[in-house]
Amino acid sequence: MDMNMPDSTLAPGPTRALANFVAGVELAKVDDFARHAARRHTIDTLGAMIAGATQDATLSVERAFAAAGIGVGQVAMAGVAQRYDVLSAAYIGGTSGHGLELDDGYRAGSVHPGGVVVPAALALGAQRHSVGRTFLAAIVAGYEVACRIAAACHPRARWRGFHNTGTVGVFASGCAAAVLLGFDADRVENVIGTAASSAAGLFTFLAGGDVKRTHPGHAAREGLLAALLTEAGLPAPRGALEFKDGFFNAYAGGDMDYTRLDIMAAGDSHPSSAYAVANCYMKPYAACRHIHAMVDAVLDMAASEGLTADQVAAVDIGSYAVAATHGTVGWTEMTTAQMSIPFVVATALVRGRVTLADFGEAERADPAILGLTGRIVTEVDAECDEIYPRKRGAKVAVTTADGRVLRRTVMEPYGSASKPLSDDAVAEKFLGLAGPRLGDARAQQALEMLWRVDELTDVAPLAEILAA
């Protein structure tokens, strides 16, 4: 190693433990359950990226890059027509993937790993002509880093105003890139040390605007840049996560000794696999994940008891405190509407679904939906708050016009690792999102390649077929 940095001689802290894990990731050592989960989440994320490539935030990024005279290159990105340099491609891909609230997540860390990890890995993998096995190993590593660091921060970082996808994402994309570049543990730790200075993302988006969409884009680019700077020889501090002036103390608060944190045990794991990617969720609804249990509840009432919107006199929702903050979010913009409990739950009641088509300007002004929003009240439920973030629960009581009270408790929403989408449902979601942009035939071809991505000798052709 030529970066004038000493080898670590002490028992590994969180930074070194993650660096050791990332440097040691080999797909042959990853269990079949997690390996298949990595394929599924790659497919799910790419579908969201392709559909999000034409949303306003992505187009704004492309226009900004053009105005700045940067970005044009040879790297293809999912759903995007223009070819970009590797850093710009990662930024645009991350923005696309998060832009429609369809990307995956990890409950215990309240983080969206796919929208950061997949575009960074795809951009660098295509540029360096990486083999599929290494690409999928990079996905596994990136998810692990995102999920474990986020779980160690959550919910303290949330209450300090930080968005884990943006702040933690730089480490995830950087470590995914480190796998593709074949870094040893020293260099991985250097990537983490460099990326720490680029961690960013605030919850100001709850007040409106589209900046939230760019958080994974920024994280994907900056983490990838940290890896490239490491490759170029830039030295960085050790122990950047747990150092007294490091990431955890700054973002999660200095109320504990992070040097003693067992980072690989942060959060939780699936009974079938210790890898974090195996315990991530996918979104069946185009809305904030905190609202999904509530949607499950009212849709079940409609299906099993024939509840219709015109029967609803009041909806009382109890959930955990983080979710309850969305009970007062408005819906003047698509961004806020997808975060708004009243609007999303009213949409589910009126339309029997929550899809991208339900957040347009006309839909946000639908009198049938607006008439219901004022009848929906959200409060903190002690039981739901007690078990969060182990579970994302909600208790929903619907009072009907004739005086009946229908009740549902959903402690784990559909799409979670314990209530997963089937492979057929994952494929259907991908084709539904990718088909309109790529054409049905090319979307099907891409899907077939993705199911066997670890067999590919070069991911560059995959990136090309995914591009518009």
Automatic annotation (TrEMBL):
Name of the molecule in the record: MmgE/PrpD family protein
SUPFAM superfamilies in UniProt: 2-methylcitrate dehydratase PrpD (SSF103378)
Originating organism: Plastoroseomonas arctica
Cross-referenced InterPro entries: MmgE/PrpD_sf, MmgE/PrpD_sf_1, MmgE/PrpD_sf_2, MmgE_PrpD, MmgE_PrpD_C, MmgE_PrpD_N
A Pfam family the protein falls into: MmgE_PrpD_C
Residue ranges of every copy of the MmgE/PrpD N-terminal domain listed in the record: 17-255
Family classification: Belongs to the PrpD family.
GO MF term list: lyase activity
Transmembrane segments: none
Domain MmgE/PrpD C-terminal: start-end pairs: 285-451
Signal peptide: none
